[in-house]
Amino acid sequence: MSVPRFTDHAANERTFLAWVRTAIAVMAFGFLVERFDIFLKIAGKSLGKTFTMSGQVAGSLVGLALIIAGAAMVAASMLRFVKNRADIIDDETHPAENDRLDLILAGLIVILGIGLAIYLGITMLQGSK
């Protein structure tokens, strides 16, 4: 027994799993960023400096946003996987899909990365005072 268009189905599944792995990494990084204040407290004690609460709140917000972005990536990849599976099963030819969702998710990660860089810069400047 063979599966019709097996290579297409396998490629669709590999792409889905790659998105899920990436989303898990983004969520784990978000958790790390959210808990970065623990590292700052320990580093601050050893350097004899204290860090402000506003920096900790910003880190928590950026971390939470990364976790939400990772969850959104899983949801988007799941929807895309199901749609692609239906398109592969269907014998009709379908036009290329719009990449808007992929671009929105990538843009969100870029914005969060810039926010994280700003947060770290501000934290470092406040810690050097």
What does this structure look like?
Pfam families: DUF202. This is Putative membrane protein. This protein has 129 residues and is mostly helical. The chain is elongated. The protein starts with 5 loop residues before the first helix and ends with a helix. The chain has one domain (6-89, 99-127). The chain contains four helices and no strands.
Q: What is the compact description of this entry?
A:
By secondary structure, this protein is mostly helical. The protein has four helices and no strands. The chain has one domain (6-89, 99-127).
Structure characteristics:
82% helix, mainly alpha, 129 residues, single chain
How does the SSE layout of this entry go?
Blueprint: H1 6-34, H2 36-47, H3 53-89, H4 100-127
Helix pairs in contact: 1-3, 3-4
GO cellular component, one term: plasma membrane
Main location: membrane
Keywords: Cell membrane, Membrane, Transmembrane, Transmembrane helix
